[in-house]
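Throughout this review, each integer encodes one residue's backbone shape. One record appears below.

===
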Amino acid sequence: MGFEVGLLWLMDQKVSLDVNVAHALSWHFHKYGVEATVINANPEDLAEARVIGGVLAVPEKSCLKGNLFVGRKSVRVRELGKH
């Protein structure tokens, strides 16, 4: 499983996580023309996975504190019988 497209969003510390996510999701759609399907945030910014703005937000240690990764996950399915 990998990412098709995504962006790193520097959060505005003056507003809530939910507001930051709303801005990041809006910008992702504006930039790429498709809805994001996943959000990653540092566990210090997001303690546990939850849906924000209709998208699953998941804590991820590799995401820097104060940043969001907003993107689209892709799933590769191997055709049966083909190697």
Helices lie at 17-32. The chain has a mean pLDDT of 87. DSSP finds one helix and five strands in the chain. The chain has one domain: 2-74.
